[in-house]
Amino acid sequence: MTVENIDRSKMTFEQAEGVHPLPRQLKLREVSPQLRAVLWDFVYSLLSGSSRDGNIVGRWAYILRDMHVQRFHRMADEFRPNAQRVFPDVKQVFAGGSYLEIFGFLEWALRHPHCPHDFAYQLDKRLRQCQAAYCVVNQDTISPISSEEERATIERAFANLASTEFNGARQHLKLAAQQATAGEWSACIRESINAVESTVRCIDPKAQDLRPALATLERQGTVHGSLKEGFLKLYGYASDEKGLRHSLAFDGVAKVDETDGLFMLGACASFVSYLINKGRAAGLIKE
Fold first, then answer.
1. Which of 15, 75, 165, 179 fits a 20 to 30 Å CA distance from 203?
2. 212 Cβ partners below 8 Å, 6+ apart?
3. Rounded to an integer, what distance in angstroms lies between the CA atom of residue 197 and that of residue 274?
4. Within the chain, what is the greatest distance between any pair of CA atoms?
5. d(Cα 263, Cα 280) in Å, to the nearest integer?
6. Band of residue 22 on the pLDDT scale cut at 50, 70, 90
7. How far apart, in Å, are the Cα atoms of 246 and each of 184, 186, 187, 189, 243?
8. What architecture (CATH level 2) is domain 146-287?
């Protein structure tokens, strides 16, 4: 990048002068000093806004008390909403916690009944700002992403699964994203495939796997035979690899890694949307 074509409005003076490095996409499991600071500023502002006479009140009092008991498994009578006690404890999560502790805290808050209505949007906005390798999907789940295209694919899948009839598939896809964030790639692939199978049963309630549903779509003329065979081969890989479909029996045996997991999460999310739209086009799924 030459001096003539850089956009100085999108970088600091030091970056434009070549003294500081340009911002980069963070890797999975990486939490930069900037991301730690920005996330703590976000949570600190919310807690400060909920502080009255030295105590945390309102939504965040409920969230933190339930977190004290249900997440950290501490005794209920030991919880104190005193701001001077709460602030250092929560700050330590962001200042010194691992990526699991940080995103675990945030995801737990996302799923709490008293979570502020715009918490997911504001959190995702900050993850984008810091170029984190994670995003918020479905308003309540933190998922790893490898690109903006993959983000759009996963978000589209959750939007397509919004109907009550797809609740099972939605839960499996949510679990797949959760397992991916935890780095449990075998479980991520398993749940991704489960989301596909659950969607399949909405097309053909008697189907036990993908083949009958694709055969139904092929007969309806909505899926080409060669494309159907390609889907079945990909499905066969995920079904045959030890540890993916039978984790209790083969835990730790499956030869899958981060690349496999992220690919299958994105592929299955895209496939779920494909199946739903094809099923609706064929009249097999109601709008």
1. 179
2. 200, 204, 206
3. 13
4. 69
5. 26
6. low
7. 14, 10, 10, 12, 5
8. Up-down Bundle (1.20)
Residue spans per domain, the chain: 12-132, 146-287
204, 213 in Cβ contact below 8 A? yes
Q: What is the dihedral of CA 259, 161, 108, 46, to 10 degrees?
A: 110
- At 249, list the tokens: 């029996």
Across 96-107, average pLDDT: 96
The torsion angle over the Cα atoms of residues 71, 74, 79 and 82, rounded to 10 degrees, is -70
Residue 250 predicted with pLDDT over 50: no
Nearest in space to 86 (alpha carbons), one of 46, 115, 123: 46
Q: Nearest CA to 35 among 115, 121, 109, 125?
A: 125
Q: Which residues contact 20 (CB under 8 A, 6 or more apart)?
A: 12, 14
pLDDT of residue 221 exceeding 80 = no
Look at 186 and 253; give whichever has higher pLDDT: 186
DSSP 213: H
Q: Backbone dihedral region of 36: left (phi > 0), alpha (psi from -120 to 50 degrees) or beta?
A: alpha
In DSSP terms, which residues pair with 55 in a beta bridge? 52, 82
Give me the pLDDT at residue 146, please.
Answer: 82
